[in-house]
Amino acid sequence: MLELFGHPLSSYTQKVLVALYETGADFTLRTVDLSQPEDRALMQSLEPMGRMPALRDGDRVLSQSSLMIEWLDRHHPGPQRLLDPDPDASLVARQWDRFLDFQVMQMMQQIVDARIFMGEGAEDRVAPFARAKLELAYAALDRRLDGRD
Predict the structure, then answer these.
(1) In sequence order, what E strands does the chain have?
(2) In DSSP terms, which residues pair with 60 in a beta bridge?
(3) Half-sphere exposure of 57 (CA within 13 A, CB side)
(4) pLDDT digits 0-9 by tens, 119-134
(5) DSSP code string of 111-125
(6) Nearest CA-CA partner of 23 in 89, 74, 99, 57
(7) Closest CA to 70 of 54, 84, 49, 50
């Protein structure tokens, strides 16, 4: 039985949840609240940096949402593959997955972190840079998706 440790508001947890639902894999979601010491300790025991999500499949524990999706595609495939079985053909999917993680989600997370964890005025310094990077990323995505269903 698969166990996903994460939080429903985490975009990285959501990525894995989509893959789990698409494959139809039987799993349990264990909601983690990193503001709670016991949940922080749990995640530190599962993931090298104590971040979420983590996916447990028997004795194996995986971190990094992209790797979890590849694991699910290989070991818990659904009716439709998540990635093209040809490694070269799946590079495009991996490229855009990394693009979204680094150019969109990481920039969004900087704004959230500045608001929640940093001192007074941090958001005013961080947000303009991050928003400018997001605008570039969204423009690239618009170009990529133009004319596609």
Answers:
(1) 2-6, 27-31, 54-57, 60-63
(2) 57
(3) 14
(4) 888 888 899 999 999 9
(5) HHHHHHTS-TTHHHH
(6) 74
(7) 84
Residue that has been written with the tokens 């999917």 in this structure: 93
DSSP character string of 51-103: -S-EEEETTEEEESHHHHHHHHHHHS--SS-SS-SSTTTTHHHHHHHHHIIII
Written as one letter, the residue type at 142 is D
Cβ partners under 8 Å of residue 51, min gap 6: 43, 63
Q: What is the pLDDT of residue 120?
A: 87
Structure tokens at 15: 């990525």
Amino acid identity for residue 23 in this structure? T
Query: 103-115, pLDDT tens digit by residue?
Result: 998 898 888 888 8
The token duo for 35 is: 């503001």
How deeply is 7 buried, as exposed, middle or buried, from its count of CB atoms within 10 A (0-12, 13-18, 19+)? middle
Distance (Å, whole) CA 131 – CA 138: 10
